[in-house]
Amino acid sequence: MNANRRIFGKFMRTVVAACAAGAMALSLAACGGAEGSKNAQASSAGDSGSLVVDSDFDLITMDPARSFETATVSILRATYQSALKYVDNNMSEPQPEVCSYEISDDNRVVTLTLNGDHYFADGKKVTVDDIVYSYQRVQGIKGNPSFYLDGVTVAKKDDRSLTLTSESPNPAIPYILPSVNLGIVEKSVVEANGGTTDEKDGAEKYLNQHSAGSGPYQFDTVAMDSKVTLKRNDKFKGDKPKYDKIIINNVDSATELTNIKAGTTDIALDLNSDEAAKLSSSEAEVSAGPSGSTTFLWFNADSQYGNIASNVDFVNAVRHAINYPKYVSVYGKGSEQAYGVVPNQFLGALKSSDDNKYDLDKAKELLKQSGYNNEEIQFLYSSDDDSATQIAQLFQADMKALGVNIKLVGQPTTTRLDTFRSGKFQSGLSTWGADYPDPSDYFVFTPDQNISKRAGWYTTEGAQSSNGWNGSESADKIQSLVEAARKATSEEDRDKTWQDLQEGLNQSSPFIPLVVQGANIASRPGIGAKYDMLNNIDYTVLK
């Protein structure tokens, strides 16, 4: 599982800054002002003109098979079509874009079939060979997104269809395919510019300046430290895109707020909830919604590191001592309480949870059962993240009301990540951003898996190869629910088994889900831009 960037990554910007080499933000207010003002006049007159967007760049590469940075997603979505897509932010049901799909009863074979004619910018049709090549290239060059198709064999079936065959059942594949990293490239163009399906691939330099997709837009100019300009793909098969040109400027969030208030930009992508709240309805329309990032508390389940915090009754006391609405308010508009680790818009999500509900009397009863005796609990959080600092302070106050002594330990994000990953700290605050919108991405919270290892949560069997950690009864107990979720095949069964699993996690795991973070975009009145969970903004749906 790659941790450099998640597909819903705007909410993980501090993590990205710590884990990847992002570009420095440059203020281009003057440039945005001129073109934005002209565009405002043109749009009011009914001319499609140019759309001016402010974005805080972290661009490293524009190659869809390599890109894993936040600001690139919406750009690639505009220029590359995928086999499948999501419509109206509905993450529970992938829809056809270039292909329709079927999945076998055993969830091992996905068959994609071209659903019509689609055209690259040079007028050539999208073929099955292009799709097969695109996927095999993602696998072969072993860039950040390559894990999406781990254990999958991609093969042409005939001139209209291809198959993706998994080594083991993998019902998540249709939910992964809408990713921009699996955007379809034109094989002949990429190969002519050094493209291969192995680590010798040399097409990145070309793809950093030229798009090779079938989306409604194509690259015009690309300067990854300052500005990206998109122009219409006149060969695009679908509805004609609204704008002749999209100009995306690299602007820090403070300047984005200034520009959108002044009307000198059309869309601001990086305002936080406090900044968005400063906008009047006459200045901008703010579209907000829940993201794919779940903020949660964790407690070390191994008694040698967690001490009293490894006690299930202690953790469950904490669950009922948290005033959840206060935590939700920290992340602002669009945020929701997380009832389980799976975000609320995904298949298998919990819509409520009696286990994660504020009840101080019950919390005090459970705390007494745990045997807690005023021990100091060390709590780790990112000191360079304002929201995390507020959450840590709220948590300390809630625990004081419960009668628990919390010592806050703030560390810079990079250091905190390393400390958490060591598996030896007592408790803390973290966030998991989904790699793709499917519950299978959340097996990491089950015993012996990635996030659970950081919290010392091992089964008896798993602990035997853990190099020093101990297994726990709570981990052994939940394994039957984990296996049921792994074996479920139909969407109905997957939905049910994941809800059952999360209820089990809420009763015995060392994790307490707090908030599905909200996100927003601001746009000049009349633009009609909507926050998109997968892409942040989807320029292709602007009408």
In short:
By secondary structure, this protein is of the alpha+beta class.
Write up this protein.
There is one protein chain. By secondary structure, the protein is α+β, with helices and mostly antiparallel strands. The chain folds into two domains: 9-284 and 524-541, D-Maltodextrin-Binding Protein, domain 2 (3-Layer(aba) Sandwich), CATH 3.40.190; 290-518, Dipeptide-binding Protein, domain 3, CATH 3.10.105.10. 32% of the residues lie in helices and 20% in strands. The chain is built from 19 helices and 17 strands. The strands form three sheets. Strands 1, 8, 9, 10, 11, 12, 13, 14, 15, 16 and 17 form an eleven-stranded mixed β-sheet that branches. Strand 8 and strand 9 form a beta hairpin. The protein starts with 12 loop residues before the first helix and ends in a 20-residue tail after the last strand. Mean pLDDT is 90; it is low at 1-47.
Structural topology:
Elements: H1 13-19, H2 29-44, E1 50-55, H3 72-79, E2 84-85, E3 95-96, E4 99-103, E5 109-114, H4 128-141, E6 152-158, E7 161-166, H5 173-176, H6 187-192, H7 204-207, E8 217-223, E9 227-232, E10 245-250, H8 253-262, E11 267-268, H9 273-276, E12 285-299, H10 303-306, H11 312-321, H12 324-331, E13 336-337, H13 360-370, E14 376-382, H14 386-402, E15 405-411, H15 413-421, E16 427-433, H16 450-454, H17 460-463, H18 473-487, H19 491-508, E17 511-523
Parallel strand pairs: 1-10, 1-11, 14-15, 14-16
Antiparallel strand pairs: 2-3, 4-5, 5-7, 6-7, 8-9, 9-10, 11-17, 12-16, 12-17, 13-17
Helix pairs in contact: 11-13, 12-14, 18-19
